[in-house]
Fold this protein.
Amino acid sequence: MNRNQPHEKLLNWYDQHRRVLPWRALPGEAADPYCVWLSEIMLQQTTVATVKNRYDAFISRWPNVHALAEALLDDVLSEWAGLGYYARARNLHKCAIEISRNLGGVFPTDEDGLKSLPGIGDYTAAAISSIAYDNASVVVDGNVERVMARLFRIEEALPGAKKPIRKHAKTLTPNKRAGDYAQAVMDLGATICTPRKPSCEYCPWQSGCLAFAKGDVERFPVKAPKKKRPTRRATIYWLQREGSSGREVWMRRRPEQGLLGGMMEFPSDKWLVEREANAPPVAANWEGLPGEVVHIFTHFRLELDVRQAIVGAFEPEDGRWVAVRDLGSIALPTVMKKVAEHVLPGQFND
């Protein structure tokens, strides 16, 4: 690519076409590190459209890192419901506590300092350092990967191509307006250099794009063949009683570490490729429900048989009774919402 100040072409384009996003500082304004951090954590594995609908509610409830640090984890998880990957919410809360109590509410300005905090990895540290503090950090997300792979026509397949992509991205990152540049490349990938049918005629980097010159833009980035997603199976148990709050169901909290860590669940067997024949968690007159609950996680498909029982006086050693009418107001992962809807179709908020 012609390296005659390519960042200037991109920044000129960005000044005219930048996206207006609720967490993004307006031209001439200084970025708020809290807003940058919060948005970047929310955007991990989640679309901009989804986050735009949730960010304002989150920031209104906890407008700064001190407020978030004082929040109850269950409240944070409830507000996070629907965004998925709940470990992000737990680390978000831990990070807020660390910054509020031990760093006086001030985010580190350098990548190493940021990476020492819970839930902040290489990409997020670079994004905060660049966007909030205008450091010349190399910010590479999915949009940037696509732009660089096409710009330099990188033949190596992802994820192996990440190293050459980062190397090329570093050569283009400017020392001045680094934060704007990082956001400009992301905007270019999101609005012009899209996965399918890119609008190359509007791209400020068209003249230097090797893939455009060869006429095979959509072939990049090259991706390795997808591995087949395995299926895991289990039985999940809906134990119900009539309590002081009306109809109640027994729930427990998942371990902090691991998938859906810290979230509330209906008890189940282990999620295994080969289903195990396990005894129910308590002795009761269990009945199987027709059909099954299916949920797709990133790395596997989960199929759940659902069994239900009604008990009288019973206090479980772990977990607690939850009013069925309150299920809509607690932090439930999507798979558990599907279970509730399967047991009580159309009555989830009853």
